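Students often ask why inverse folding is considered easier than folding. One informal answer: many sequences map to the same fold, so there is more than one right answer. In these notes we will look at a single instance of the problem. The structure comes first.
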C-alpha cells in the first residue's frame, strides 16, 4: 500500500474518534515490510488521559505487540501534524518515517507552531512527509469543530 492508502486507514481511525466525541485524529503504524502493526485514535476524554493522543495510543500498542519500545523501521501515518509531546515520543521510539495529513497551526511541532527538528538537537530525526490527503484530514477537523460550535448555539 502507498502513503495515501495508509492515510485512508488513519482517517478511518479519526472517524472513530469523532464518533466518540473526541477530536478526530487517527493514526496507524506500519512496519518495514508494509504490514500494519497498530492503529488508534484520539481518546484523552474517554480515557481521562491527557496523553492519549492518537500517536501515543499507536506507539503504546505497537510497543506492547512487538515487545520493544524501539520501533525502528516503522512508519507512522497520522491525520494531523503531531504536537510537542507526540514528537518527543516519536523520537524516543525511533520511528523511521512520519507521514501526516493536515498541518496544525496552533500546536503542530514539525512545521507549524514549532519546528522541533530544525534545532538539530535530537539524537534521532525521522523522515517527514506532510500533506498526504491534507484536504480530507483538514475537512474532518473543520466539520467536527463546526458541529461543536453549532451545538453551543
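Output (designed amino acids):
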Amino acid at each position: 500500500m502507498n502513503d495515501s492508502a495508509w492515510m485512508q486507514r488513519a482517517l478511518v481511525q479519526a472517524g472513530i474518534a469523532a464518533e466518540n466525541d473526541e477530536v478526530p485524529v487517527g493514526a496507524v503504524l506500519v512496519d518495514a515490510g508494509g504490514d500494519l502493526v497498530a492503529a488508534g485514535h484520539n481518546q484523552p476524554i474517554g480515557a481521562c488521559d491527557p496523553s492519549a493522543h492518537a500517536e501515543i495510543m499507536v506507539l503504546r500498542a505497537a510497543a506492547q505487540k512487538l515487545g520493544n519500545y524501539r520501533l525502528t523501521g516503522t512508519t507512522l501515518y497520522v491525520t494531523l501534524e503531531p504536537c510537542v509531546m507526540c514528537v518527543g515520543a516519536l523520537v524516543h521510539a525511533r520511528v523511521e518515517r512520519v507521514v501526516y495529513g493536515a498541518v496544525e497551526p496552533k500546536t503542530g511541532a514539525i512545521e507549524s507552531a514549532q519546528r522541533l527538528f530544525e534545532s538539530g538537537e535530537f539524537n534521532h530525526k525521522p523522515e517527514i512527509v506532510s500533506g498526504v490527503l491534507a484536504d480530507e484530514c483538514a475537512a474532518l477537523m473543520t466539520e467536527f469543530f463546526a458541529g461543536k460550535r453549532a451545538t453551543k448555539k
